[in-house]
Write a structure and sequence with these properties.
The complex is a heterodimer of chains A (about 575) and B (about 290).
Chain A: E1 4-13, H1 24-33, H2 37-67, H3 76-110, H4 119-142, H5 173-201, H6 214-246, H7 259-293, H8 300-313, H9 329-341, H10 343-357, H11 366-389, H12 391-397, H13 401-431, H14 437-463, H15 480-510, H16 548-553
Chain B: E1 12-16, H1 21-37, H2 40-61, E2 67-81, E3 102-104, H3 106-132, H4 137-144, H5 155-159, H6 163-187, H7 195-218, H8 220-225, H9 228-248, E4 251-253, H10 255-258, H11 262-265
Antiparallel strand pairs in B: 1-2, 3-4
Helix pairs in contact in B: 1-2, 3-6, 3-9, 4-6, 7-9
The chains are: A mainly alpha (about 575), B mainly alpha (about 290).
C-alpha cells in the first residue's frame, strides 16, 4: 500500500505547551465572557449533557413506576411532573442545545470561517437558553404551588388548554414552564439567525453553495425551519401568559376562546420541531457515513433537494397530531397525504446513504456502528410513522404507547444514536484525544440491546390499548410483563450511557492523542489542529471541490476534476 | 484547496474581544421573567442587569467593534492519507450510455392517464347499471371515501345523483388517473418485449392485489361494496388504453443521447454498446442478436 503524504503549512497558536497554572476564577471568567464559537459550542454540549442525565433519571423514575401494576413508587402528582419535565427537558434543553452545540462548533470550521457571523449574539443565545433551563428546574425549589410543596410543571410538554388555565393549574407551575420555554425560544431563534447568516455570508473563497458540506446545508434548512416554527410557539406562550396574568381569553373555551387554537399553535411548532431535531442528525450521517465507507456521498444534489423538500413539507403535517380532535374528512385526508409524502424525500436520503455504503470499504469504527444503527432504526421509525399517518389507524393508536414507541424510535433510535456517532467522530477534534474504541463498542452493544428491549416491545402494550401518560394499571390488563421488560431495557440503556460518560472523562485525560486528521477525512475542520486554535485558520483556505482535503491529499486525482 | 503559509502576512489575527455583557443581558431578561413567578425584587434586579447589559454591549460594538489580537505562528503539519493512490477501475467511456437515450415526453403519460381514466368509466358504469340500476352508484361509492358522513349511506342514496359526489369522484379519479398515467409514461420504455401485456394485464392485476389488501384502511365503505370482478375489468381497461396511447407517442431524446459520439448521433454508426466482461474487464464481443 502506498501512502501519500502532502506537507501542509497550517498554523498553530504560539502559546507555550506548558502554560502557567491559572486560577479557577480566571478560567471561569474566560468561559463566561467568551464569544468564541468553539467554546460556546462546547458549553452548549456540556449544558445539554447535564440535562440529558437529569431527564434520563426522570425517565428511569417513570419506568420504575410503570414496571409493575398497581405501583405507587411515586405519587400521581409527581408522576405528572416527571413526564412533563422529561419531555420539556429532552426537547428544549437537551435536543436543541446539543444540536446547536455541534453546529456552533463545526459550521465555521467546515466553511472556512474564523467565527460565527454575530459572536456576541451567539453568546447571548447560549446564556438565555441556559438560564431558561435553570428557571424551569428552579420550579422544583421556588414554585409555591397549591400547597406550598414545590410545583414543577405538570401539564405535559404540549401543555394543552384548558389544562393550563388558572382554574385547572393554580400556582405558578405552568408559568415556570411558559417562561422557561419562552426564554429558550429567544435563544433558539438567535442561534438560528446566526447559523443562517454565517452560512450565507462567511463561506471561504471557492465554497459555492454547491460545494458546501451537506452538514452546513442541513443546518441551514433546520435554522430556516426554526424561524417559521418557534415564532408561533413564542406567540402562543405570550398569549397563554396574557390569559393567565391579564385575564384574556385566547384559550378559554367558556369565554369564547379556543382550546383547539392552542393545539394548532403548539403542533405547528411541535411537528416541524421533530425535523429541527432530526435534520442535524442527518447532517452528521452525511459526514460520517462517507468517511467510514471511503466514498464520496452518493447523490449530493438529490440530498440537498431532499433536505429542502423535507423542510417545506414538514410545515404542512402538524395536524396529524390532531386526528382525534375531529377536524373533518378534508383536513384528515390532507394531513394524511402530506405526512405520507414526506416519506419520499426521507426515503431518498436513506437510499443515498445505502448507496454510499454500497461497494465502499466500510470501516466499522464505533462512529460508523452508531450510524448504521441510526439507519436501521430511523427506517423502522419512518415505517411506524407512515402507519400513524393514516387517520383511521391513528384513531385507534393515538395517545397509546404505540405512539410513544414510535417517537422514541425517532428521538433515541435515530437522533441519539447519530449524536453518539457524532461524539465518537468529532470528540478528537474538540479535545485532541481519541475516545476509546474498546469502551465505545461496549457502549454501542449495551445501548443497542437496551434500546431495542425498551422500544421494540413498547409498541405491544400500545397495540393492547395501554394509554400514554397513564400513572398505573391493573394487573389483569395483560401489560405487566411487557412493562417489566421495557423498564429493564431502560436500565440497560442507562448502563450504556454511564459507560459513554466514563469513556469521555477517561479519554479526555488518558485517550490516545488524535492529531489533526485521525479519520483520514475530507472536510475543512480536519485541516487544522485538534483542538483548533482560537482563529481556526491563519489563512482562510480556498476550496475547489466538496472534499477539499481529498484534493489536498490526492493531487493526482482531485475531486475538482469531476465536479 | 490551498493552504500556503507564505500567504500569511501578519503574525496576529484580530478576533472579537470577549465580553460578559451578552451573559449579563441574558441574565437580566431571565430574572425579569423569574420575577413574575418569585418576587418583584428579582424582576427589578433583572431590569437593572438588562439595562447594564444593553449599554455595555452597545459600547462593545459602537463606535468601533472591540477586538483582541491573537498571535499566530505557522508550523508545518503533515496531513497524510492511509489510502493508496487512487486507481480507477477500467471502464469504457460509453458505459454510462446504458442509460436510456430515448424516453417518452412527460405529456405522454398525462395523455395516457386521461385516456385510460375515460376508458375506465365504461366498465364502472356498466357495473353500476347492471347491479344497482343507476349510473351514479360507482361514482358515489368512490366519492364516499372522502366523506365520513357517507360511511353508512344506503345503496339507494349512492344510486342518486349528488353534485358533491360528482366533484369528489372527479377529483379522486382524475388525480389518480393522471399519476398512474405518468407512471406508465416513465415505466413503459423499461418494460421487456411486450409492454402492452405488462401494462395492460400484469400491472393492473398487481395494482388490484395491492389495493385488495389495503382498501379496508383507505376506504372502508368502498371495501365493503366493491365488485372486485368489475374492478379488475376497469383496471385492465385503463391499462390497455393508457398503454396503447402512450405507445402511440413519439419518444424524445434524453440528455444521455448528447453524450454519444457524433457519428452515432448522426446515425452513421450503431449506438450498440460494448460492455466490459465481468471476468477480465475486457469489452465483450457485441451480441449480434441485439
Amino acid at each position: 500500500m502506498m501512502a501519500t503524504q502532502t506537507p501542509v503549512h497550517a498554523v498553530l497558536d504560539q502559546t507555550s505547551t506548558t502554560p502557567p497554572r491559572r486560577l479557577v476564577l480566571e478560567v471561569l471568567h474566560d468561559w463566561i465572557a467568551t464569544v468564541d464559537h468553539k467554546k460556546i459550542g462546547l458549553m452548549y454540549i456540556g449544558y445539554a449533557l447535564i440535562f440529558l442525565v437529569v431527564a434520563g433519571l426522570e425517565a428511569i423514575l417513570i419506568r420504575i413506576q410503570l414496571a409493575v401494576p398497581n405501583n405507587h413508587f411515586v405519587s400521581p402528582q409527581t408522576f405528572n411532573r416527571l413526564f412533563t419535565m422529561h419531555g420539556t427537558t429532552m426537547v428544549f434543553f437537551v435536543g436543541m442545545p446539543i444540536l446547536f452545540g455541534f453546529g456552533n462548533y463545526l459550521i465555521p470550521l467546515m466553511i472556512g470561517a474564523r467565527d460565527m457571523a454575530f459572536p456576541r449574539l451567539n453568546a447571548f443565545s447560549f446564556w438565555i437558553s441556559a438560564f431558561g433551563g435553570t428557571l424551569l428546574y428552579f420550579s422544583y425549589l421556588g414554585g409555591d404551588g397549591l400547597y406550598g410543596a414545590g410545583s414543577a410543571p405538570d401539564v405535559g410538554w404540549w401543555a394543552y388548554a384548558p389544562l393550563t388555565a388558572h382554574a385547572f393549574s393554580p400556582g405558578h407551575s405552568t408559568d415556570y414552564w411558559t417562561l422557561a420555554v419562552l426564554l429558550s425560544g429567544i435563544g433558539t431563534i438567535g442561534t438560528a439567525l446566526n447559523i443562517v447568516a454565517t452560512i450565507l455570508c462567511m463561506r471561504c473563497p471557492g465554497m459555492k453553495l454547491g460545494r458546501m458540506p451537506l452538514f452546513a446545508w442541513l443546518y441551514l434548512v433546520m435554522s430556516m425551519l426554526v424561524f417559521v416554527t418557534v415564532s408561533p410557539l413564542t406567540a402562543a406562550q405570550i398569549m397563554l401568559m396574557l390569559d393567565r396574568y391579564l385575564g384574556s381569553h385566547f384559550f378559554d373555551t367558556q369565554a369564547g376562546g379556543s382550546a383547539v387554537l392552542w393545539m394548532h399553535f403548539f403542533w405547528i411548532f411541535g411537528h416541524p420541531e421533530v425535523y429541527v431535531l432530526i435534520l442535524p442528525a442527518f447532517a452528521y450521517a452525511n459526514e460520517i457515513i462517507p468517511v467510514f465507507s471511503r466514498k464520496a456521498i452518493f447523490g449530493y444534489p438529490a440530498m440537498v433537494a431532499a433536505s429542502v423538500g423535507i423542510g417545506f413539507i414538514s410545515l404542512s403535517v402538524w395536524a396529524h397530531h390532531m386526528f382525534t380532535v375531529g377536524m373533518g374528512a378534508g383536513a384528515n385526508a390532507f394531513f394524511t397525504l402530506a405526512t405520507m409524502v414526506i416519506g419520499v424525500p426521507t426515503g431518498i436520503k436513506i437510499f443515498n446513504w445505502l448507496a454510499t455504503i454500497w461497494g465502499g470499504k466500510v470501516h466499522f469504527t464505533v462512529a460508523m456502528m452508531f450510524a448504521v444503527g441510526f439507519l436501521f432504526q430511523f427506517l423502522i421509525a419512518g415505517l411506524t410513522g407512515i402507519m400513524l399517518s393514516a387517520a383511521p389507524l391513528d384513531w385507534q393508536l393515538g395517545n397509546s404507547y404505540f405512539v410513544v414507541a414510535h417517537f422514541h424510535f425517532v428521538l433515541v433510535g435515530a437522533i441519539l444514536f447519530m449524536l453518539f456517532s457524532a461524539f465518537y467522530y468529532w470528540f478528537p477534534k474538540m479535545t485532541g484525544r481519541m475516545l476509546s474504541e474498546r469502551i465505545g463498542k461496549w457502549h454501542f452493544w449495551i445501548f443497542l440491546i437496551g434500546f431495542h428491549l425498551t422500544f421494540d416491545l413498547m409498541h405491544i402494550p400500545g397495540l393492547l390499548g395501554m394509554p400514554r401518560r397513564i400513572y398505573t394499571y391493573e394487573a389483569d390488563r395483560g401489560w405487566a410483563m411487557w412493562n417489566m421488560l421495557i423498564s429493564s431495557g431502560g436500565f440497560i440503556q442507562a448502563i450504556g450511557t454511564l459507560l459513554f460518560v466514563y469513556n469521555m472523562i477517561w479519554s479526555y485525560f488518558k485517550g490516545a492523542v488524535a492529531g489533526a486528521d485521525p479519520w483520514d477525512a475530507w472536510t475543512l475542520e480536519w485541516s487544522t489542529t485538534s483542538p483548533p486554535p482560537d482563529y481556526n485558520f491563519a489563512k482562510i483556505p480556498t476550496v475547489e471541490s466538496r472534499r477539499p482535503l481529498w484534493d489536498l491529499k490526492h493531487p493526482e486525482d482531485p475531486d475538482s476534476n469531476y465536479e | 484547496m490551498h493552504l500556503d503559509h507564505t500567504e500569511v502576512e501578519t503574525d496576529v489575527i484580530q478576533l472579537p474581544s470577549p465580553t460578559i455583557f451578552p451573559m449579563v443581558l441574558a441574565l437580566g431578561i431571565s430574572l425579569i421573567c423569574a420575577g413574575m413567578v418569585t418576587h418583584v425584587a428579582i424582576g427589578l434586579l433583572g431590569l437593572v442587569l438588562t439595562i447594564w447589559g444593553s449599554v455595555g454591549w452597545f459600547f462593545q460594538v459602537f463606535p468601533h467593534e472591540h477586538h483582541v489580537a491573537v498571535v499566530v505562528q505557522t508550523e508545518e503539519v503533515t496531513i497524510a492519507s492511509t489510502r493508496t493512490l487512487t486507481d480507477r477501475l477500467p471502464a469504457i467511456e460509453t458505459q454510462r450510455a446504458i442509460l436510456p437515450v430515448e424516453t417518452f415526453h412527460i405529456t405522454t403519460g398525462i395523455r395516457g392517464g386521461v385516456a385510460g381514466g375515460i376508458a375506465m368509466v365504461v366498465p364502472a358504469t356498466l357495473f353500476s347499471l347492471l347491479k344497482y340500476h343507476s349510473i351514479w352508484y360507482a361514482m358515489n361509492l368512490l366519492a364516499a371515501g372522502g366523506f365520513v358522513s357517507w360511511a353508512g349511506a344506503s345503496d339507494s342514496f349512492l344510486g342518486q345523483f349528488h353534485l358533491q359526489g360528482l366533484l369528489a369522484a372527479l377529483i379522486i379519479h382524475g388525480v389518480v388517473s393522471l399519476l398512474v398515467g405518468l407512471l406508465y409514461g416513465a415505466m413503459l420504455p423499461m418494460f421487456p418485449k411486450y409492454p402492452i401485456v405488462t401494462a395492460g394485464l400484469m400491472v393492473p392485476l398487481l395494482f388490484t392485489g395491492i389495493l385488495y389488501s389495503a382498501l379496508s384502511i383507505i376506504s372502508p365503505i368502498l371495501n365493503e361494496r366493491i365488485g372486485w370482478f368489475w374492478f379488475v375489468v376497469s383496471q385492465i381497461a385503463f391499462g390497455l388504453v393508457c398503454g396503447f396511447v402512450v405507445n402511440l407517442q413519439t419518444k424524445v431524446r434524453t440528455p444521455q443521447f448528447r453524450a454519444l459520439p457524433f457519428a452515432t448521433r448522426a446515425g452513421i454508426h450503431s449506438d450498440q454498446i460494448t460492455r466490459p466482461s465481468k471476468q477480465n474487464g475486457q469489452p465483450d464481443e457485441k451480441d449480434p442478436s441485439q
